[in-house]
Specification:
The complex is a heterodimer of chains A (about 250) and B (about 350). By secondary structure, chain A is α+β, with helices and mostly antiparallel strands. Chain A has one domain. Chain A has 4 helices and 15 strands. In chain A, strands 3, 4, 5, 7, 8, 9, 10, 11, 12 and 14 form a 10-stranded mixed β-sheet that branches. In chain A, strands 1, 2, 6, 13 and 15 form a 5-stranded mixed β-sheet that branches. The longest helix of chain A has 21 residues. Chain B has a two-stranded antiparallel sheet with strand order 1-2. In chain B, α2 crosses α7. The chains are: A alpha+beta (about 250), B mainly alpha (about 350). Chains A and B meet through loops of A and α4, α5, α7 and α10 of B.
Amino acid sequence: MIQKIKSFAFFLLLLLITGSFQKKEMDSTLVIQFRAYVHGYPLELNKKYQNPFGEAFEVTRFRFYTGKIAPAYTDASLKAKITSPYHLIDFSDSNSTRIELPVAAGNCHGIQLQIGVDSIDQSRGAQTGALDPAKGMFWTWNSGYINFKIEGNSPLSTQPSHLFEYHIGGYRNDNNTVWKVKLFSTNDESFLITKENKIVIEVGLDLDYLFDGPTPLRETSSCMMPGALARKISENFIGTFTGLTISPNP
Amino acid sequence: MKSLAVITFIGFCAVMWINIPFPFIIPKSFPPPVYRFQNNPRTKEGFELGRKLFYDGILSKDGNVPCSSCHQQFAAFATYEHRLSHGFNDHLGFRNAPGLFNLVWERELHWDGGINHIEVQPLAPLLDPHEMAEDLNTVIGKLKKDKTYPVLFKQVFGSPGINSQRILRALAQFTASLVSADAKYDKVKRGDSHFNQYEQKGYEIFQQKCSRCHQEPLFTDLSYRNTGIEVDSTLKDYGRMRITGRKEDSLKFQVPSLRNVFLTFPYAHDGRFANISEVFEHYNSGIIQSPTLDSGLRKGIPISSDDRFYLIYFLETLTDSNFIRNSLYSDPALHGEMAKPVEESH
């Protein structure tokens, strides 16, 4: 009899433990859709645009690393568990611009994410997946990932074929180009993520700010290595993240 | 009884197709290594795959430039008697190819320390248009089409597939295993041999004049220093500054190990010193003053002709013949053959 009670108590305890774990279980899904805009319209690669000075330009490639994404919960006791791996967002591949993230349910008012690959993950040796050096986002002579890459052409460029190329990276000291970003919904509303309510968050990037931000890129047609310039361009880049538009999954 | 257990274990591994562990032995008196084969457990099979890749031209664009073309075992894995090495299409490289040994103790690799992990180092020569001139995806494609590689990769990594990580980890199993710690110097330190009076005198001079940077037992402190050299007007190589972007690092290069020094001439990052005498003379009278010059070299290092005589005797005790003749490190295609013996020259 005692044995039975004991095992029953044990069973109860087990239920209790699993129950308390269940609360934090990552059983819900957050969908993040990255969208880039030029002059307020969705970016189209290889399309001719004009900057505010009437100078033509066209973007042929745009990719960046993001990772360590987690919801920002309104309930302070709900600490976001950061398990998300790195993703290479490549605007020539629409599949890559959408991330489905397993998260714990809760009320949120934004998300946190990292733009670029941080110093810990920069020196882990040979990687696979998004961080596979075969993706062409790794500098071989000065080990490190290119955190974002934007290429195109403009008659303004003094480079051969009027190309512009910005390969922005660097993780050491003052030249760090990795940013941790918190983005809140544009209208400051909170949103509830539950198992049933799959939320889609759209993260907008306003490329006008990249080109015409504090360090106007029309004066520089290339940046291909870590340094003070790369750092400044990364400040422009981080300014392109304008906020979130949140919608329930259609 | 013990041997029976070992045989049974190896038999078990063979039957289960489990790779045989291949423990890395840290030489006595050496510091703890930086690279400990984390996430890349060292196995005999992994080492052998890395070794095969190291000696195989398949990693290069035209098939003619394996890692071993610039890293020759008989030269302690430097390029013998070359200021700069020849790569794809006879292009000249940018820097003097360093010897490859005791790499697990290096937190940063290359003359400028630009490489932050031993596993990613091969990407630099592999993709450099003047060296192996290849593309990573092309290499993967070639290896996948090969008759033997897919089987070997499956055996080493436990599942089919070849990717950049597997290639790099296999190469690291080999290069990280290159340990040179069996020169006469080491035997003396272990008490298995002793210096003759010339070597002993040379050792004392070495400790007095050289060991501030060329620290035992690695014979380098792995720091970056400007040793009073001028920039080469064609190569325009400013060393560490290229990596950090800081002008304080202008003309600083990583202190090279003096182990196997008589096999790795010519010396310095661009091979500007043809022999050891030129190096002695540089420290004695050739230091060029500049803002980033190493503080200990402002007045140079007086090295008299007597000093040179004895130093040469000592430096010869750093030649590790067992390392350069070790068939474990040699081209597997020439298995059983001894590496080319090296004439003692200086």
